[in-house]
TrEMBL record:
Keyword flag Lipoprotein: no
Annotated InterPro entries: Gfo/Idh/MocA-like_OxRdtase_N (IPR000683), Gfo/Idh/MocA_Oxidoreductases (IPR051450), GFO_IDH_MocA-like_dom (IPR055170), NAD(P)-bd_dom_sf (IPR036291)
Protein name: Dehydrogenase
GFO/IDH/MocA-like oxidoreductase domain mapped to chain residues: 81-190
Keywords: NAD
Native species: Glutamicibacter protophormiae (Brevibacterium protophormiae)
Ranges of residues in domain Gfo/Idh/MocA-like oxidoreductase N-terminal: 8-72
């Protein structure tokens, strides 16, 4: 394996595709260099350090007719892939609410962005993808507890254009690592644990409750609980296979740069909402 010193040397070799996995501040420069050289590119999330930079990337790859993708890898987690398939089949009925919890210790490798762009961007992307609807408005709260310039906790609440209520809770302040997505709907609730790749369904009960006070308090009764069995493929491999297929012109489900830019818009809006203590329409 030959190690090359910079992007120019990489382009000179004559590559067809590339993955940009440098700190966020350098995404734009590397991606634009690759795009100008006609190289299809997957950029790790978030798409860029600013909306202006992200839009320049979107425009460059669109105008050049190149495949530009963003590495929101959680879409390719087996639990979320299975969840999305079952929602598409109508197994949850109408969607009411989606909650995500992404909590754990601070990763020392992150220095140029806060928890919103580094982690909450995962949840914003997967939320819009799972429910197949973009965020309509957001409100958020942030905290700065570790002495860094960037936020280490954010709680985002909002609603999608389809009317689904959203809550994303993300922090770098918990000794307990948690990666959960809960989708509640007409027929029950799906719980996807993306740390283990497990998906569980909690069905609404179909047996009438004879205990009136409990029935009136709960609203719905507790039904069967099912933990599904399905193939669990490694998300990074599935993501890169989809990127390869997109470059080859095959059907794929990549996160496009346009979608990555939309996710960055939601995250930036959440940070602005937290700073201004206001609700922002998107």
């Amino acid at each position: 394996m030959k190690i090359l010193p910079d992007t120019d040397a990489l382009i000179a070799v004559g590559i067809d595709i590339a993955v940009v996995a440098v700190p966020t501040a350098f995404h734009e420069k590397a991606a634009l260099q690759l795009g100008a050289a006609g190289v299809h590119t997957l950029v790790e999330k978030p798409i860029a350090h600013s909306l202006e930079a992200g839009q320049r990337m979107v425009d460059a790859f669109r105008d050049a007719g190149l495949v530009g993708a963003v590495g929101h890898i959680e879409r390719f987690n087996p639990a979320l892939q299975e969840l999305r398939r079952r929602i598409e089949r109508g197994e949850l009925g109408a969607l009411y609410q989606i909650q995500t919890r992404r909590q754990g210790p601070f990763p020392s490798r992150i220095s140029d962005v806060g928890v919103a762009k580094d982690l909450a961007s995962h949840d914003v992307d997967l939320t819009a993808w799972v429910v197949q609807s973009e965020y309509e408005y957001v409100f958020a709260q942030t905290a700065f507890k570790s002495g860094r310039a960037h936020e280490d906790m954010i709680a985002i609440t909002g609603r999608t254009q389809s009317g689904v209520i959203v809550n994303n809770l993300v922090n770098w302040l918990s000794p307990m690592k948690e990666r959960l997505t809960v989708v509640t709907g007409e027929k029950g609730a799906f719980v996807a644990d993306t740390a283990t790749g497990d998906l569980t369904f909690y069905a609404n009960g179909t047996i009438p409750l004879e205990w009136d006070t409990v029935s009136s308090f709960r609203g719905v009764s507790e039904g069967d609980v099912t933990r599904y069995s399905y193939p669990k493929r490694e998300p990074l491999r599935v993501e890169h296979e989809n990127f390869r297929d997109a470059v080859l012109g095959r059907p794929s489900d990549i996160v496009t740069m346009e979608q990555g830019q939309r996710t960055l818009l939601v995250v930036e809006s959440a940070l602005e909402a937290a700073n201004s203590r206001s609700v922002l329409q998107l």
